[in-house]
Amino acid sequence: MLRTVREDLAAARRGDPAARGDLENAIVYSGLHAVWSHRVAHRLWIARGLPGSRTAARVLAQLTRTLTGIEIHPGARIGRRFFIDHGIGVVIGETAVVGDDVLVFHGVTLGGRGGGPGPRSKRHPTVGDRVVLGAGSALIGGIMVGDDSVVGAGTVVTKDVPANSVVTGIAGTARPRSGGEGVPEL
Predict the structure, then answer these.
(1) If we measure between CA atoms, which residue out of 143, 150, 36 comes closest to residue 97?
(2) pLDDT greater than 80 at residue 74
């Protein structure tokens, strides 16, 4: 647990050039608070045989949403070193999967489209490792965003994005990356 907290604090330093220090970041960064709360809620969500654990997970997620302005469904799977910078308005749906070292800016939606209820129906996006999701971008449906990709601010993505791409526009179109576009050094 302590290792995870340290990794998350390091991700905040990498993802936000204005980050001053670990103590201040741990106290004031709502993105970190939302991620830490989600890690607890997700454990409750997947706990089998613990009566009321899913209800407790949903209550914790809603409390966190109220306090941070960031809504992450407890069923979503979030990777290591995930950082939400200026997180107000971020929404991550139940069947979303987010890889490691992902950086998300405010107003990002990992939203669902169609399909039946429950986690067996893959209604939300899968985001690969080392992806940057620009402010106000919306990834909709059971799509895949490949590793090392950048989704531009305001982009609407409704189709798979190949690895190592930059996707921009409404609806977004992918092109090969020319290197270093929006990806902080790890």
Answers:
(1) 143
(2) yes
Residues 6+ apart with CB under 8 A from 135: 86, 105, 106, 107, 108, 153, 154
Distance CA 38, CA 73 (A): 8
Banded pLDDT at 180 (limits 50, 70, 90) = low
Contact residues for 48 (Cβ-Cβ < 8 A; gap 6+)? none
The band of 176, judged by pLDDT with boundaries at 50, 70 and 90, is confident
Domain 2-176: give its CATH code. 2.160.10.10
Give dist(CA 37, CA 135) in Å, integer. Answer: 22
Residue range 79-111, pLDDT digits in tens: 999 999 988 999 999 999 999 999 999 999 999
Three-class DSSP category at 67: helix
Q: Domain spans of the chain?
A: 2-176
Beta-bridged to residue 111, according to DSSP, are: 140
- H-assigned helices in the chain: 2-15, 22-28, 30-46, 53-68
